[in-house]
Amino acid sequence: MPLYEHVFIARQDLSNTQAEGLVEHFTAVLSDNGGKVVESEYWGVKTMAYKINKNRKGHYAFLKSDAPPAAVQEMERLMRLHDDVMRVLTIKVDAHGEGPSVQMQKRDDRDGDRGERRERPAFGGGDRPDRGGFGGDRGGERSGGFGGDRGADRGPRR
Questions:
Q1: Per-residue DSSP letter, 40
Q2: Predicted structure pTM score
Q3: Whose CB has fewer CB within 10 Å in the chain, the N or C terminal residue?
Q4: Which domains, from first to last, does the chain contain?
Q5: Which residues lie in Basic and acidic residues bias regions (predicted)?
C-alpha cells in the first residue's frame, strides 16, 4: 500500500483533548477503510502566518499512514466537511522518516538548550572590521538627529 503523510490544522478554540480526539477519529476512519496509521503526533497550538476563518492560531496534528488511496480520499473528504478542521495537507511519500518529525525535534532541542546562551561580542567591538567603531562615521554629509531638515521647504502643514 502507498505511504502518506498528513498534516491538518484544527480551530484554536478547541481544547487539547478535543484536538487529540480529532486525530483518533481520523485514525479510525483510515482503519475502517483498510488503512493504518503508522505514527501520529500532536504538535500543539501554533501561530499561523495569516488568518484562516478569523483564527490566528491552530492545533496542528501530523499523521503517517499506510493506506489505499480510497481510504485517504475518504479521510480527506471527512476532514474537509468537519467544522473544526481548517486546513488539510496530504503528501504521498516513498518512505516514512525514522524518529520524530522536524517539529518535534525542534521542541526537544529548545528544551535542552534553555540553560545555554551564545556568547556575544562586546558592544561596538563586533567581528566586522569593515565597520569602524560605533557606526557614526560613514562619510558624506548627513544631518544628525531624528528629523533632520527633511520637508523643511514644503511650507506650512495643514
A1: E
A2: 0.65
A3: C
A4: 3-95 (3.30.70.60)
A5: 105-131
Which cell is 13 given? Answer: 478554540
Dig out the grid coordinates for 98 from the structure.
Answer: 525514522
Alpha-carbon gap, residue 19 to 78, rounded angstroms: 15
Three-state secondary structure call for residue 153: helix
Cell numbers given for 21? 480526539
154, burial (CB in 10 Å: exposed 0-12, middle 13-18, buried 19+): exposed
Please classify residue 85 by burial: count the beta carbons closer than 10 Å to its beta carbon, then call 0-12 exposed, 13-18 middle and 19+ buried: buried
For residue 32, the one-letter residue type is D
User: Among all chains, which residue has been given the C-alpha cell 505511504?
Assistant: 3
Residue 122 dihedral angles phi and psi, to the nearest 5°: -65, 160
| Cell numbers that stand for 74 in this block | 475518504
Q: Residue 4 and residue 94: Cα distance in Å, rounded?
A: 8
Cell of 96: 516514512
Residues 131, 157: Cα–Cα separation, whole Å: 39
Q: Are 40 and 5 in contact (CB under 8 A)?
A: no
